[in-house]
Inverse folding.
C-alpha cells in the first residue's frame, strides 16, 4: 500500500509541474458539474450491473470461447452488463482476463459464442463508426500524416469538416504537426492524435483498450485529465479498459472489476466523487478508500491470472 | 565520410584491379588484363553494335520488370488480403516457384514463339522465351513480398479503419496497399536483381543482347569482350537496382529509415 | 493464445459481403493444384502456342516413373540419379566453399565496422567486394570456362568452372547477410556482456556470433537458392553432366519428357534444400523468431 501511495504523490507533484503546458486544454470547459447524479446506477439484486435510465449498451449472458487448434479457451463467461447513455465505465481486471474480448465483442470484431450484445436495442453486426475504438498499441496509420489520420473517418464518408478537425487539433495541442508522420511524434502526442482521429468521427461510444498503458506516469495523468475534459464537454459514452486501479477509479462513474479467466464480473464499484475531477482528487480520502477496495478485489484475481499464465507456459 | 576512410575505400577498389593485373600477368595467357579490357572497352563504346546490345538487354529487363510489377503486386496483395482467393491460387504458384527460371529455358525455346510485329516506323521481334525467363525471375520475389507485406500488417489497423467507417475497398486502398508497400518495394529491389541474373542466362542460351555478346565473345575467342560484357552488365544491374531503391524510398516518406 | 488467423479468416469471409459455403482449406488447395494440371493438359491437348510439342502431365508422370526406375536419360548412358548427384554435389560444394569464405570475411568486416578501432577491414575489404557484387553470377560463366578447367579426380570429372559460378552465386548473399547481422546487433548487448566480465573473445563467442547467426542462416538460405539457379545455368552452358545439362540435351534431341522430368527434379531438389536450411536454422537458433524459410 505504501508504495502505491508514493506513486500517487509523485504523480500529483508531476502534474503540478507540467499542467501549465496544457492550460489551453482546460480553458472554456463548460462541463456538467452535477451531471453525474442523473446517470448514477445501482447494482441489481441478481448481481447484474445495471444502469438506470436508458441503457445504450446491453450485454446479456455473453460467452466467448476461442478454439484455435482445439485449445478451447473460455475468455468471457456469463457476463451481463448494461452501460447507460453518457456513462463513463471502466473495466478493471488482471491481464488475460477477457477484458479485451469484451471490448472486441462490443466493437463488432468478434461474434459472441453465446449471448448477445445490443447497442440501442440492436444486435452488433460488425464494426461501425458510431462505436469508435482506441487500441492499446497506437494504431495511427504510420503511412499517413497526423492531418490525414485525423481526417480519415469523415473522409471515408466524404464529409470532412475542416473546422472541427482544426478545433480538435487545437484543443489537443497538435496544431502545427498536421504534416508530421506518427513516428516523428512522442508517445503522448501520438495518443492525442489517435483521440482526435476518433473524435473527428463523433462516435456515440468510445471503446478504449488500455490506451494509456504505454505512456510514462506524467504523460498518462495529463492524458487522463484531457480525456475527462473532452468527455465532459461533449456528451459521450465511454468504456475504458485498464489494469491500473488508480486510473480506473479516477476516470469512472462505475468500475467493473473482472475475475481472472474465464472473465466474469466480480463486483461493480460506484465511484461517488464529484465532477469535474482533476488530479487533486487522487489524494482525497474518498479516492483512497475506493482504491483500497478495488485493490483488495483485484489482488486475488491477479494472482490467479499469473498462475494461469505460468501453467500455460509450462504446457506449451 | 572523412578523408582517411575515403582513401581506404579507394585502396580497396584499386586493389581489385591490381590483383587482376598481377593474375593476368603471371597467370594463363587466355586471361586478358585490365589494360587490354580497357582498350577494348574504349573501342566498343563508339561501336553501335555494343549500344544495340545494351539497348536490347535494358529494354528487355525494363519491360519484363514492369510486367512483373503489374501482375505480381495486385496478385500478391489479393492473395495476402483474401484468404479464400489465396487458397485457390497460391498452391499452384507454389508448385512452379521452386523451379529456377533458367530451368525453363529449354521449355521456353521449344514452346514459346518469337513475336514479330511492326509499329509503322520499325519492325520489332520479341523473343518471348527471354522475356518469360526474365519475368519469372522478377515475378516471384515481388509476389512473395506482396503477400508477406499484407500478412505483416497488424490486423488492428484494418479494425481501426473499419471502426472509423471505412468500407472494404477503402480499407484495401488506405490500409492494405500502403501498409504492404515497404515489403513490395523490397521485393522489387530483389526482383530487379534476379531479372538481370536470368536475363543474362537466357540471352547466353537463346540469343541477343549483352548475354549473347559475352557468350559469343568466348566462343569467338575475343576474350577481352567477355569482360567488357561483364562490366557493362554489372553497371547496368547496379544502376537499375539503385533507381528502384531511390524511387521506392521517395514513395515511402513515412518510413523511419527513409527519414533518417 | 493465437486466435488471430482464425478470426481473420472468418472476418474476411464475411467481408466478402456474402456468406458462401466454402470447401475446407485442404480441398481449396487441391482444387488449385488440380486446376494447374488441367490447364497444362489442355494447353498440350489443344496445341496452345507450341505446347503441342510439349508433354502432358500424365506423360511426364509416366516418364518420371521410368527414369526414377533407372532408365538412362537423354541419349546418354547415365541414369537421372547420376545427373542429380552431380548437380547436388556442385551446389553443396559451391555453397559450402562460399560459406567457408564469406562467413569469416563477413564477421571480420562487420566487427571492424562496429569496433571503430584496430584495422579498418570494413573500409579495406568491403568496397572492393561490393564492386563485384552487381555482376550476375551467370555472367561469370564464359570467364570461368576460360579460367577453370575440367579436372579428373579419382575417375570423376570435376568441372571447376561450374563450381566457381555456383560459388560466386552463393558468396555475396552470405557475405552481405553476415555483415548486416553483425552490424544490426544492438551495442548494449555487447556492453552488457562486458559488464558481466566477458573478454573480447567471449563477447564474440557468446554475443556477436549467436546474434548474427539468424542473419547468416538467412544468407545461407538465399545462397542455396541462388546456387540452384546458377548451377542450372552453368550446366546448360558449360556442363558435361548434371540436371541442367540433360534438360538442354533433351531439348536438342527433342526428348520433351526429359525436359519436364528435369524441371520437376530440379524443383524438388531446390525445394528440399531450402527446407533443409530452414530446419537447420530452427535447430541452430531455437530462440529466434526470424523466418529463414523463403
Amino acid at each position: 500500500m505504501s508504495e502505491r501511495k508514493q506513486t500517487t504523490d509523485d504523480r500529483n507533484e508531476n502534474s503540478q509541474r507540467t499542467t501549465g503546458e496544457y492550460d489551453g486544454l482546460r480553458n472554456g470547459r463548460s462541463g456538467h458539474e452535477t451531471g453525474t447524479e442523473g446517470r448514477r446506477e445501482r447494482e441489481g439484486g441478481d448481481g447484474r450491473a445495471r444502469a438506470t435510465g436508458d441503457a445504450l449498451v446491453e450485454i446479456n449472458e455473453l460467452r466467448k470461447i476461442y478454439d484455435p487448434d482445439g485449445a478451447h479457451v473460455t475468455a468471457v463467461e456469463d457476463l451481463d452488463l448494461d452501460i447507460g447513455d453518457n456513462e463513463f465505465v471502466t473495466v478493471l481486471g488482471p491481464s488475460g482476463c477477457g477484458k479485451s474480448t469484451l471490448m472486441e465483442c462490443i466493437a463488432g470484431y468478434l461474434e459472441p459464442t453465446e449471448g448477445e450484445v445490443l447497442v440501442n436495442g440492436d444486435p452488433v453486426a460488425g464494426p461501425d463508426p458510431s462505436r469508435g475504438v482506441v487500441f492499446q498499441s497506437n494504431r495511427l496509420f504510420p503511412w499517413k500524416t497526423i492531418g490525414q489520420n485525423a481526417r480519415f473517418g469523415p473522409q471515408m464518408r466524404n464529409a470532412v469538416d475542416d473546422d472541427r478537425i482544426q478545433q480538435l487539433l487545437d484543443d489537443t495541442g497538435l496544431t502545427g504537426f498536421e504534416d508530421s508522420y506518427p513516428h516523428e511524434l512522442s508517445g503522448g502526442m501520438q495518443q492525442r492524435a489517435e483521440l482526435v482521429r476518433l473524435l473527428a468521427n463523433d462516435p456515440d461510444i468510445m471503446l478504449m483498450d488500455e490506451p494509456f498503458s504505454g505512456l510514462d506516469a506524467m504523460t498518462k495523468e495529463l492524458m487522463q485529465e484531457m480525456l475527462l475534459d473532452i468527455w465532459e464537454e461533449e456528451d459521450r459514452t465511454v468504456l475504458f479498459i485498464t489494469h491500473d486501479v488508480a486510473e480506473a477509479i479516477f476516470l469512472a462513474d462505475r468500475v467493473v472489476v473482472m475475475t481472472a479467466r474465464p472473465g466474469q464480473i466480480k463486483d461493480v464499484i460506484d465511484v461517488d466523487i464529484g465532477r469535474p475531477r482533476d488530479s487533486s482528487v487522487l489524494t482525497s480520502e474518498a479516492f483512497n478508500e475506493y482504491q483500497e477496495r478495488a485493490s483488495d478485489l483485484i489482488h486475488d484475481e491477479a494472482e490467479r491470472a499469473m498462475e494461469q499464465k505460468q501453467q500455460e507456459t509450462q504446457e506449451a | 565520410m572523412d578523408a582517411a576512410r575515403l582513401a581506404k575505400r579507394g585502396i580497396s577498389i584499386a586493389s581489385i584491379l591490381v590483383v587482376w593485373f598481377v593474375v593476368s600477368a603471371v597467370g594463363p595467357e587466355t586471361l586478358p588484363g585490365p589494360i587490354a579490357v580497357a582498350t577494348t572497352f574504349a573501342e566498343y563504346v563508339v561501336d553501335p553494335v555494343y549500344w544495340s546490345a545494351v539497348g536490347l538487354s535494358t529494354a528487355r529487363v525494363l519491360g519484363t520488370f514492369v510486367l512483373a510489377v503489374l501482375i505480381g503486386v495486385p496478385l500478391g496483395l489479393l492473395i495476402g488480403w483474401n484468404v479464400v482467393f489465396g487458397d485457390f491460387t497460391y498452391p499452384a504458384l507454389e508448385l512452379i516457384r521452386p523451379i529456377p527460371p533458367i530451368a525453363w529455358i529449354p521449355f521456353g525455346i521449344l514452346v514459346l514463339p518469337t513475336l514479330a510485329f511492326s509499329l509503322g516506323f520499325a519492325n520489332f521481334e520479341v523473343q518471348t522465351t527471354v522475356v518469360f525467363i526474365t519475368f519469372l525471375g522478377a515475378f516471384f520475389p515481388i509476389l512473395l513480398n506482396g503477400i508477406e507485406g499484407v500478412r505483416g500488417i497488424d490486423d488492428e489497423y484494418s479494425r481501426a479503419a473499419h471502426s472509423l467507417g471505412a468500407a472494404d475497398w477503402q480499407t484495401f486502398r488506405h490500409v492494405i496497399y500502403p501498409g504492404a508497400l515497404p515489403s513490395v518495394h523490397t521485393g522489387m529491389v530483389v526482383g530487379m536483381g534476379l531479372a538481370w541474373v536470368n536475363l543474362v542466362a537466357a540471352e547466353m542460351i537463346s540469343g541477343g543482347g549483352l548475354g549473347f555478346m559475352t557468350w559469343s565473345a568466348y566462343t569467338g575467342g575475343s576474350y577481352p569482350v567477355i569482360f567488357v560484357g561483364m562490366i557493362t552488365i554489372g553497371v547496368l544491374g547496379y544502376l537499375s537496382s539503385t533507381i528502384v531503391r531511390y524511387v521506392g524510398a521517395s514513395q515511402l516518406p513515412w518510413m523511419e529509415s527513409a527519414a533518417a | 493464445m493465437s486466435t488471430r488467423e482464425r478470426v481473420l479468416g472468418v472476418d474476411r469471409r464475411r467481408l466478402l459481403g456474402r456468406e458462401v459455403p466454402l470447401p475446407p482449406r485442404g480441398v481449396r488447395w487441391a482444387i488449385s493444384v488440380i486446376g494447374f494440371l488441367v490447364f497444362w493438359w489442355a494447353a498440350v491437348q489443344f496445341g496452345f502456342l507450341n505446347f503441342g510439342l510439349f508433354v502432358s502431365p500424365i506423360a511426364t508422370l509416366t516418364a518420371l516413373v521410368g527414369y526414377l526406375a533407372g532408365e538412362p536419360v537423354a541419349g546418354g548412358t547415365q541414369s537421372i540419379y547420376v545427373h542429380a548427384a552431380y548437380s547436388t554435389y556442385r551446389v553443396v560444394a559451391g555453397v559450402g566453399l562460399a560459406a567457408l569464405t564469406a562467413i569469416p570475411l563477413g564477421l571480420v568486416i562487420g566487427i571492424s565496422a562496429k569496433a571503430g578501432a584496430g584495422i579498418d577491414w570494413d573500409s579495406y575489404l568491403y568496397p572492393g567486394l561490393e564492386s563485384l557484387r552487381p555482376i550476375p553470377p551467370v555472367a561469370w560463366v564464359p570467364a570461368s570456362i576460360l579460367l577453370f578447367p575440367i579436372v579428373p579426380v579419382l575417375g570423376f570429372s570435376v568441372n571447376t568452372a561450374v563450381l566457381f559460378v555456383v560459388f560466386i552465386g552463393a558468396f555475396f548473399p552470405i557475405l552481405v547477410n553476415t555483415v548486416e547481422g553483425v552490424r544490426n546487433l544492438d551495442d548494449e548487448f555487447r556492453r552488457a556482456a562486458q559488464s558481466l566480465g566477458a573478454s573480447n573473445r567471449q563477447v564474440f563467442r557468446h554475443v556477436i556470433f549467436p546474434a548474427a547467426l539468424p542473419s547468416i542462416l538467412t544468407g545461407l538460405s538465399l545462397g542455396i537458392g541462388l546456387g540452384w539457379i546458377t548451377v542450372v545455368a552453368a550446366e546448360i552452358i558449360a556442363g558435361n553432366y548434371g540436371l541442367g545439362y540433360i534438360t538442354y540435351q533433351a531439348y536438342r534431341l527433342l526428348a520433351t519428357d526429359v525436359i519436364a522430368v528435369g524441371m520437376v527434379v530440379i524443383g524438388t531438389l531446390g525445394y528440399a534444400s531450402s527446407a533443409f536450411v530452414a530446419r537447420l536454422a530452427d535447430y541452430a537458433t531455437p530462440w529466434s523468431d526470424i523466418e529463414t524459410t523463403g
About this structure: Chain A has nine helices and twelve strands. Residues 240 and 291 of chain A are 17 Å apart (CA to CA). The longest strand of chain A covers residues 55-66. Chain A touches chain B at residues 107-109, 126-129, 131-133, 135, 137, 139, 141-145, 152-153, 156-157, 181-184, 197-198, 201 (CB under 8 Å).
